[in-house]
Each structure stands twice: as C-alpha cells, then as structure tokens.
Amino acid sequence: MPQEYRLILKHADEPGYTPDIECYLRHGGYESLRKALALAPRELPDGKRMSAQEQIRDEVLKSGLRGRGGAGFSCGLKWSFVDRRSGKPIYLICNADESEPGTFKDRQIIHKDPHQLIEGMVISCFANDVKLAYIYIRGEMPEGAKLLNKAIKEARARNFLGPNILGSGYSLEIHVHRGAGAYICGEETGLIESLEGKRAYPRIKPPYFPAVLGLYQCPTIVNNVETLAAVKHIVAMGSGEYAKLGTPNNTGTRILSLSGHVKRPGYFEVEVGKVTMGELIFHENFGGGMRDGRKLKAIIPGGSSSKVFKAGETFKLKRKGPDGQMAAVDVGILDLPYDFDSLQQAGSMSGSGAIIVMDDSTDIVEALANVSEFYAHESCGQCTPCREGALWMSKALHRMTHGHGRKADADYLLHIAQNIQGRTICAFGEACAWPVLSFVKKFKDEFESRGAADEARHGSIQGATGHPTAASPGLPVI
Amino acid sequence: MSTPTTAELKPAPPPVETIRIKVDGRELDVPKTMPDWQGKPQPTTMLQACAMAGLEVPHYCYHPKLPIAGNCRMCLIEFGTPMMGPDRKPVLNEDGSPKIARSVLPYEPDAARGAIACATPISPGMELYPSSAATKQMREAVLESLLINHPLDCPICDQAGECKLQEYSVEHGQATSRFVETKVHKPKQVDLGPRIMLDDERCVLCTRCIRFTRDVAGDDALGIVNRGSYNSIAAYPGRQFDNNYSLNTVDLCPVGALTSKDFRFQMRVWFLKETKSLCATCGTGCNITAGAREEKLLRFEPRQNDAVNGPWMCDHGRLNYKWVQREDRLSTVISTRTGSGTWTGVLAEVAEVLRNAPKGSVAMVLSARQTNEELYLLNKLAVLCGAITDSIAREGQGDALLVSPDKNPNSNGVRLTGVAYTEMGIQIPKIAAGIRNGQIKTLVVFGEDVTRHGLEGDVLSRLDHLIVSDVLPNETTQRAHFLLPGCAHIEKRGTFVNVKGRLQKFMKAVEPKGDARPEWEFLGELLQLLGRPENFKSLEGLFNQMAKDTPAFAGLEWSRIGDLGVNVKL
Amino acid sequence: MAFIVPAELEAELNELVTHYPQKRSASLMFLHAIQEHFGFISKEAAEWIASKLDLQPIHVWELVTFYPMFRQHPPGRHQLKICRTLSCALGGAYALHEHFCRKFGLDPKAHGIQTTKDGSFSVEFVECLAGCGTAPVMMCNDEFHENVSLSKADELISKCQ
Ligand SMILES: Cc1cc2nc3c(=O)[nH]c(=O)nc-3n(C[C@H](O)[C@H](O)[C@H](O)COP(=O)(O)O)c2cc1C
Ligand code: SF4
Ligand code: SF4
Ligand code: SF4
Ligand code: FES
Ligand code: FES
Fold first, then answer.
1. B28: domain range?
2. Residue A7 lies in a domain
3. pLDDT band at B269 (very low <50, low <70, confident <90, very high)
4. Is C73 domain-assigned?
C-alpha cells in the first residue's frame, strides 16, 4: 500500500512536539552534529587522509541527494564545485524563500521543527568550512523568522552554534535575513543580490556562478531548506542507508505539496519514486481523489513553473527491461512514478515537488491567466525577453478572459513564450514560458474555441498590422 | 590611427596566446585574452571575437568601457562546441575534422540555445554563428519585445538618426509586430537634472547610464524604480542628477531616452557638420567632435581617445562653446591711432611700432590658450624685438577622472615654445614695474585680459602702444591702441600640448565672424612686414617648420600626427 | 517633518548591521524594522536609512519600489492580504477577495492595495503565500490564516474591530 515515509517530518506533526530546543533534544536532536564534529580523519588505502569535512562531503555525494529547491541538482556535486582555493571566505545560504506557487513544504520544517534545519545547516557549514551563513526566509513568513531566530539563540546558548562549537574548534554564525515579497529572490543569484541589499536581479552566468563568485563575490553555497535538513539524516544514518530510500538516482525522501481540486490536499513525505502520480492524487493515504462528481482535467506536477499534464496523457519512458536492456515503455500519467527522472522524461519536471490538481470544473484559460499574472507580477524586469514577454502574455490572457479573445491567440501566445525560454538571464524565463507553452499546446482547442467564440460575438480585433501597433479596444491595463 | 613617436615605440610584445575558432565558417585565431572595460586582460568574449572577424554583433547594454550587464539579450548568438565522446576525446567527422555540437535547449533539442556574445568567453574549437537563421530569429524577437511598449515617436525624437533601436530595427527587425495589447505607460519628460531630460517610455533599460555614473563617474545617483515591465530609470525623487559627467549618459544612451537639454530639438543630427577638435577648457585636452550647422556651433561631443579621455568628457567642457559666437564677439580690426579698419593698414602700423621700438621697451603677455604655432611665431616676434615674454597661469579645481586643475589648454605649449621657461606669470610684476618706470613702452597681449592679472588699467594707461589680440571684449581690448580680432580654437586649426605631454591637433569647425582671422595667419604677415619673411604657406607648413625649430617637436610632421595626437617629451 | 528613530529601535538596527560583512546588506532588514515601527517607508525614512548605511537614497528607493511588501503610504491598521495564485484561486480566493471588498466598499476588480476611508482596513491580493494546501489563505497583518471561508472572514473582521 502506498504510504508516507516520514524522515524529515518524522516528529513534526506528533502531538506535543514543539519547535523549542528541549523538545528537539528529547528527540535525539543535535546528535548528528556531535557525530559529524567527532569524525576522525580517515586514512585512505593510497596513504592520503580524508578530513572530517571531506568525509561528510563525500557522504552527501554518495547519498545521491538531489536539491529539493527546484532544479534537482546533485547536492554533493554542487558542493564539489566550491572554489576552496580562493582564500576568500565561503558562505552558505539556506534558501527559505519558498515561493514557487503550489509549494508549502519548507514552511512545515521551519515552523514545526526549526532546529532540524539549524542542525542540517551547521553540519553542512562544517563540511564546507563555512564560518558565516544566512537563512533567507521569505518576508511573508514573519512567524517563521521569529521561530528561526529563537532557535538560533537557543542553539547558541547550548554551543551548537557560535564560537568553538562543542569544543571542536569550529565556529559558525547563522543569521536570519528576511525577503520582502519578491518571488525572484528564490533564484539563487537573485537571492544573493537581495542579501547584498539590492534589487533581486539574478546575475549572468558566466561569470557569476555562486560556487566561485557568489555572495560578496566569494564562493557561496545555496541550498534549499529541505536539502539541508536531509543532510542531517544522511550523516545520522550514513549515505548507504539513505540511498536505500527512494529509487536509484532519485534517493531519499521528498516532501510533496499537494493542492487544488483533491479531497485531501496537504503535504506528504514519501520515498522518491515509490509513489505514483495516480496514488498521490487518488489514494486515501494521499489526495483521496477528486471532489465528488468531478473528473481529473490537468496536473501541474512540480510547482506552477513546470509544464502541465493533461489527464489521460501517456509518455514513452526509458526503462530497464527484464533483460537489462533499456527500452521505451508507455506509461500513463497516473502510473508515472513521482521522481525527478520520470517527470523529466515525461516532458515536465518535479521542480519543487508541488502538485496542483485541476478537475473538469476548471476553465483552463482562466487557470493559465492566473499563473501568467503571477509571472508578470514577479518578473524582476532586468532582461528584455522576460520583462516584456511576461507581461505581454499576461495581458493577452487577461484580454482572453475578458471576452476579447481571438482564435489566433493560441499561436500568438506560443510565439511569445517561445521567444522567452532559453534567452533570459535566469530560469524565470522558462518558469514563465513553460506554463504558457504547455497549457496552450495541450489544451489548444479550448484556447481556440474561446477565441473563435469571442470573435463571432465582437468581430476580430485589430492587430498584427505592423507598426504602430493597434491597441485592443477598451482593455483595462493589468 | 596615430603614428607613434619614438617615445611610444616599445619592445615587441611577447607573442599572444591565441585560440582557434570559427566565425560563420571562417577559421580565425583570436587572442586568448583581451582587455576588459578597465583594460585588464580577461578571456576573450564571443563579441570581441566576432569583431575581429569583422562582424559587429548588435548590442544595447554592452559598452567596451563599462562593466558587462548582459541584460538586453540583443547580442545572443548561436554557437557550437567540439563534441566530446565518453572517453573525453573529441568526436571526429568522417573527414577527420572535429564534430561540432550546436548548442540546443536541453529541454527542446530542436531549438537553438544562444549565448550572450558580450559576456560569454570563447573556447578552443568553438564555432560562432552570428549570421545564422537562429541567431537572426533571436535578434528579431528581442527587437520585437523592445518595441512592444516603445512609443515609436521617432518623428519627434531627438535621437532619430543616432538611435540604435531605429537602426537595428531596420537591419535586424521584422516588418510587423504581433502586439495587440495596450502599452505600458511610464513617466515622460522627467527632469533628471539641470542638463538632462529622461523619457522612460523610450528607455530600453540597458543600464548603461546607471553603470556609467556609478562605475566611471563615481556618483551612484541613478537607479531603477518599480518592477518588471514597469521598471523605470530614475534619480531619487527630488535629487538632481547633476555631476560634471552627466551628459556622457546622453551619448551612452542607445535610444532617445536621455537627451541633453542644451541640444534637445536644436537640429536633426543628420544636418550637422562634424569636425574633429579638442576641448580647450582645461589642460586635459579631451578630444571632441564639434557639431555645427550653417556656421552655428550646436554641440560638442567626446571623441574617443584612450590616451586622453577615453570616450568621455566633462559637462563643463562640453557646454563651454557658446561664448565663441556671442553677439559682442570682437569682429573688427582697428587702430585707434589712425582709425584704420583694414588688416593691411593696421598691421602696417603695428609693424611700424615694433620696428621702431628700442630693445628692452617691448613686453608680451601671451596666453596659454594660443596654439603652439601661434606661440612659436609670437616667440619669434619677441626675439626680433628683444621683448620680454610671459603667460598667465590659470589654476582651478581638478578631479580624479578627467578635469585638470590647469585651466589652460596649452600650458605645455607655452613652455615648449619658449614663451615662458619658468613658472608662468613670474615675469608679470617685472613687466608692471617696467611699464611704471617707463622702460617698457609697448605691450603686446594675446588672449588675456591682463587687467585681471597684475597689469591694471592705470598701468596700461602709461603705455605708448598697446597691441591686443583676443576673441571677446574686455578691459584690455577696450584700452588697445591696435585691436587684432583673433579666433577661438574651434574657429581655426592648430595644435596644443596637454598636461601629460600629448600633442594634439584640431580642425576648424566654424568660420570666425567679421574681420576676425586665425592669429597665425596675420602673425606671418606681421613678421614679413618686419623683414622676416616666413616661407610657410599653410598651417601644415607652419607646423612642420616649428617642429624643425623646436627640440621637443623634433621629427614631427602635421600629416603624421593623426587624429589622436602623439606624445612629446616635456 | 523631522524623522526621529527611537533610541531602542536604533540600537536594534545597529545590531543588525553587525550581521553582515557589508553594511548595505542590512537594507532589507532596516526597511522591515522601520516599516514595522512607522507603518510605511516615507522619503525621510528612506533617506535616514541611506545615510545610516552609507548609501545613496536612490539605493533604498530602488528597494522600496521593487519589493512588494514595502509601502510608500500608510496602509490600513489591519492589512488583509489575500492569496490570489492558482491553488487559492481554485479554492475560492477571488470570492474571498470580493467578499472583503464589498464589505468595505472597495473595488473588487482592483488587485493592488486599497484602504478603507477610515484607515482601519486595507485589502490587497498577494501572490502565493506557501500555504496552498489549505486554500484559500490570507494574512491579517503578521498572522497567517488558512482555509478562510466567507464566514471565517467575517469572524476575522469582527475580531479586528
Ligand atoms: C525563478 C526561480 C525561483 C526559485 N525559487 C526557489 C525557492 O523559492 N526556494 C528554493 O529553495 N529554490 C528556488 N529556486 C531554485 C534556486 O535557484 C536554487 O537552485 C536552489 O535554492 C538550490 O537549492 P537545492 O540545490 O538545495 O535545491 C528557484 C529558482 C528559480 C529559477
Ligand atoms: S529572466 Fe526575468 S526574472 Fe530572470 S533576470 Fe530576466 S527579467 Fe529577471
Ligand atoms: S536611459 Fe538610456 S542608457 Fe539609461 S537605461 Fe535607458 S536606454 Fe539605457
Ligand atoms: S576635462 Fe577638461 S578638457 Fe576634458 S572636457 Fe572637461 S574641461 Fe574639457
Ligand atoms: S549586449 Fe546586452 S546582453 Fe549582450
Ligand atoms: S496559491 Fe495561495 S498559498 Fe499558494
């Protein structure tokens, strides 16, 4: 029977579990940190020695942990890119901006078990020789910021943080930094700019790869809350045990956020790849199915930036057959295992692990208009294709949802989106283009018939006539 | 390009390390590193490599003298890199050449993935496709995006003719826009500072202006307010953008968003006659292009010279041109002695005075605003009359970027031609004393109001002969017995030597008014009248003769100075 | 009007500066603290922060106009921020927003901030608050509210009054 596997959220929802340090310590808190700090250098067969730090980094690499923030990049590999020879300080930033629409998992860790995050951070900082770290928490979580500050104070009072941690000679400070309502602060280089006190303008890469030229132009690690919490468990149980959770290349557990038209929305921690999309939506241990009398229409699988799935879609996935050979197999959307690789092979992504379900009562044009309004509002406006394109798409969709659609709008939208993806400074370009590309391609009939109906009513609006462009009649500016 | 003097000839540089790449199919060796905006060697970018191949990659935000921003995306180009096999060895084609993997979107392998040429370094074996269909499509799309919210008011825009949006739209754009929505409206006619107007609707948000004032001028006064499509360039509300370099942002602005209040609506730029000249407001000698129409000076713009001013100039110098064509400018040659009003008449009288002047009775005050050629001739005249000569120092505030505390454009010319060997102005008290005690009876003044520099009116009134040349009237010119209207440098040709020893030439941008003539012309005639015929026929000849006679200019020829000048030994 | 920061607050701010190797980093935290105290960021406040952090006022103004949480004008005493994004929209956020607007005589079509004439409430749509599983969600000042039905909304209003 598909069920949750609670590792990070093991205690969070237990009755009587509180976010203070006593409670955390009663549940074995900070034991992994003690273990990490106590690691002795290990002699390798070739005579080289592996420091405690190197051992932890190696463990994280071997655990197969992939970032939980969105891109799913190997955490151990990311750490290995850090420039450790520059002579500059190395910084670590916990990305607690949680703002990808549909996502509410980091919120649970921060509000219910903040010490777990702190412990994961201290271990990660120790492993990477970081002396100063920040938690960048979104501005709309004032309570979370208070809880984290309190946790930091408590940890410092007990010497899990601050100078000479537990007598190890290792010192670390962590500070909480609050954002102020801008989604783009979740993008790691935008976050860094924001932490430097500037507008959250993502940086061009090259040359500003955080591992080399990050915060204050120093090597910097940015990791998601859940990723850092997982590090604690990798150290606690060992990379081998951790890697046994989940499926190959998709190890460990993930906290998935399920929202939209299901009976039982909520967050569920599962072994990665052990539960299918269908189970997540329909099984009574998870979403519990559609609301009564409703049918599934569409699924956004990994936060609003990921490409939408249409009910009934099937995909060709590469699978190892019984003979050990890779072969393409047809997999229906509901049978799709929820993991990084399967979703990518199905043409979308698991992103931040946020599943938004839409039933047949959903007006798909309205839904896309809603998502596009988000991106138009959140584009930082730094680079041309996204700055202009995000609002352009949103205006077009606004027009469509206000009775002035055109049949040609489907292709019009595809044209705009196609010219954004891959051409921008940061991945927000994809984030705003993908919903449009996928919604319009997969539900083209709905866009076209709506536009055609409007045209039948009003006649075609002017446009596409060359410069100067004709403004559409009487439209409110968003 | 300038011809280097011996002083500039350095030992042959070590061979540069190069990378072999292909640009539009043509093989090319490019240096591994090239200077960045501050001149520091950095990995060569795709844009620099394309430039070496003779192809300009269109761009808005990139500027060679500003830090890279990478925000406009106009310079996106398609590219490919050598394909690597699993053994980390290059995969080869059948003919043995390396197989190239065109860069594609990882999630959409049919679509090209461009890289911004301005910020992406090249690597060995890379192939750049700045002219491919995919590159063109990316450009078209960026232009379309830039235009959707643009007011397209070219007919009333001052930038028309110098606008990169207009230019690129013609070259790289598509004929039609698909945009049918309402445009975003932003502030128009924003009074950014005393010299600059901003139209946010025309702005393409390239941030050149912000980067210039922050990273070059050192006045971090501009920023962007609001967000997303509503982003707008702004100074802090109520604060003036008024640093002494602010007008460079007008030059930098690739569109008509930033305009000079001084030049706004003056003239469509394609009607301007442009002349290479210099700023004469301080000793830096920034290179300029003077714009004029029908003999009316309309603007100065910096002309790039990395040995002097880079691409910049200060606002003060830029706007310091109106005095030249003031209404009261001196324009009649006159002798108050005889009332003669012709050059022949007045010069004959002056020659007569100087010929009869006993040795030691003549003094000359010669401005460091005169050209080298003029100072050279004046010095000859002084030797002929046994005159004592000096010049006037002009000290003021300097800054860290360009402005020199020396407010004369040619102090070094004064020294090198021998008009003043020691500290400038040191002889003035002596001259004053000489006039007072009656020893000095004739004073020749070129380009200075000496009444403000130690030879007051009552001193001048003791003279038998006051011979004055200048451009604007002042107390000295009013007291002159012989008034010889000269030219501002912008009205003539000549050379100056700047504070760092750079000899630079300038051309004539406008005609002088009335009788006014270039001083070197009538000085030649005067020397001839005094029995010292000069054999130059033109300024070129005069310069070459001066170079022969003046040790510091030895070996120079007018035709070899070039537009950017040469260094001379101070 | 002189802009006076109480000593206690200033001490708090001074402490914040010590969290960062570069003063400028404290900008957002300063803005939060100042806004908490004064309700909004006035020009005077922006200038004060700039001088405190050795910045130009435009640097602070760039932030005030970029980050949606900062206000240039005083909002209502009770700030109602209703999530507008997809999961909440699917869960009835627009009806909730409209409900508040009608109660207060505000324009339900407007997405930006609107404040009642008496200054007691302001209503605005905000983007995803990371509470999508309990849609619709909203914030009343610093408090987070989930599963906000229309009747729960009414309760909230009366609690505020
Ligand atoms: C537009 C955009 C928004 C993002 N928002 C978040 C976010 O809210 N939280 C987060 O952890 N990562 C976010 N990311 C991903 C981060 O850039 C970064 O990859 C991540 O924090 C790395 O952590 P991880 O490797 O532990 O996943 C976002 C990325 C983009 C492009
Ligand atoms: S893609 Fe969008 S969010 Fe990212 S830098 Fe460009 S404008 Fe900003
Ligand atoms: S005003 Fe001109 S220079 Fe400044 S950002 Fe806009 S377009 Fe660029
Ligand atoms: S720095 Fe001097 S030479 Fe250059 S523009 Fe200014 S005044 Fe003229
Ligand atoms: S020139 Fe603007 S991105 Fe390269
Ligand atoms: S959509 Fe409302 S909290 Fe996420």
1. 18-147
2. no
3. confident
4. no
Assess C72–B contact: CB distance below 8 Å, yes or no. Answer: no
Residue C141 lies in a domain: yes
When scoring C63, C65, C67, C127 by the number of chain B Cβ atoms within 10 A, the one with the most, hence best to mutate, is C65
Residue B76 lies inside a defined structural domain of this protein: yes
Question: Across the interface, do C58 and B238 touch by the CB < 8 Å criterion?
Answer: no
Instruction: Evaluate whether residue A134 is within a structural domain.
Output: yes
Tens of pLDDT along chain C (161 residues) come to: 579 999 999 999 999 999 999 999 999 999 999 999 999 999 999 999 999 999 999 999 999 999 999 999 999 999 999 999 999 999 999 999 999 999 999 999 999 999 999 999 999 999 999 999 999 999 999 999 999 999 999 999 999 98
Residues C84 and C13 both lie in one domain: no
Per-residue confidence (pLDDT) for residue C44, from 0 to 100: 97
Asked if residue C139 and residue C102 are part of one domain, the reply reads: yes
pLDDT, tens only, A206-216: 999 999 999 99
Amino acid at B122: I
* Mean pLDDT of the region B181-201: 95
- The tokens 């005094």 sit on which residue? B530
CB atoms within 10 A of CB A173: 17
Helix (H), strand (E) at residue A295: none
The answer to whether B390 touches B365, Cβ cutoff 8 Å, is yes
* Contact flag B229-A415 (C-beta cutoff 8 Å): no
Domain check: are B363 and B471 in the same one? yes
B208-223 pLDDT, tens digit each: 999 999 999 999 999 9
Q: How far, in Å, CA of C126 to CA of B190, rounded?
A: 31
Burial class (CB in 10 A: 0-12, 13-18, 19+), B475: middle
Q: What is the DSSP string of B208-267?
A: HHHHIIIIISS---EEEES-GGG-EEEEPTT-----TTTTHHHHH-SSSSEEETTTTTT-
Query: Which region among A237-241, A444-448, B266-270, C127-131 has the lowest average model confidence (pLDDT)?
Result: B266-270
Total Cβ atoms within 10 A of residue B369: 27
CB contacts of A257 in chain C (<8 Å) are 132-133
For residues C87 and C33, membership in a common domain is answered with no
Give the distance from residue B209's alpha carbon to the nearest chain C alpha carbon, in angstroms. Answer: 14
The answer to whether position B514 is within a domain reads yes
**The token pair that represents A107 in the structure block:** 């919120």
CB A211 near ligand 1, within 6 Å: no
Regarding the beta carbon of B235 and ligand 3, being less than 6 Å apart is answered no
Residues A199/C62, Cβ–Cβ less than 8 Å: yes
Q: Please tell me the pTM assigned to this model.
A: 0.95
Q: Measure the CA–CA gap between B346 and B342, rounded to whole angstroms.
A: 6
In B, minimum Cα distance to C55 occurs at B220
- Domain containing A132 equals 21-244
Tens of pLDDT, residues A24-36: 999 999 999 999 9
Residue having the nearest C-alpha atom to atom 10 of ligand 1 = A69
Q: Is C35 in the A-facing interface, judged by CB distances under 8 Å?
A: no
Q: Quote the pLDDT of residue A461.
A: 63
Residue A249 falls within a domain, yes or no? no
For an interface test with C, which of B210, B219, B236, B239 has the most C Cβ atoms less than 10 Å from its Cβ?
Answer: B236
